[in-house]
């Protein structure tokens, strides 16, 4: 396994444990989210498919930015709807910042011939 796969696998396993512990301790359905994300990361870390990992990472960033924006707009005077969140600048600001982080890390990570996206 390559080093990045080990990191993904270990982070996924930690999230998987947190989800199982949350289900057992609190009996809350909210623990299903880290359980599913952890299981996905464990699988992606084990399989080592770089393209699937990139798609999963970008989808996670977009959903995370959407949820942060929705949470901020949950003020008493605001009624956050889907279109309200997507047309406001906060969502696009957060998305742009996260994509810059992705570009910086992708630029610094070497891509070998067997691990290219093309």
Overview of the molecule:
This protein has 118 residues and is an all-alpha fold. It has 2 domains: 1-48; 54-110. 75% of the residues lie in helices and 0% in strands. The protein has helices at 3-26, 32-47, 50-72, 82-87, 89-108. It is flat.
In short:
Helices cover 75% and strands 0% of the residues. The chain is mainly alpha-helical.
* Terminal residue distance: 21 Å
> What is the molecular shape?
flat
Instruction: Please provide the count of β strands.
Output: 0
- What letter string, H or E per element, gives the SSE order? HHHHH
Q: Tally the helices: what do you get? A: 5
For the report, how would you describe the main beta sheet? Answer: none
Helix content percent band: over 70%
- Beta-strand residue fraction: under 5%
Structural class: mainly alpha
User: For the residues shown, what is the average pLDDT?
Assistant: 80
Overall number of structural domains = 2
Radius of gyration (CA) equals 17 Å
Low-confidence stretches: none
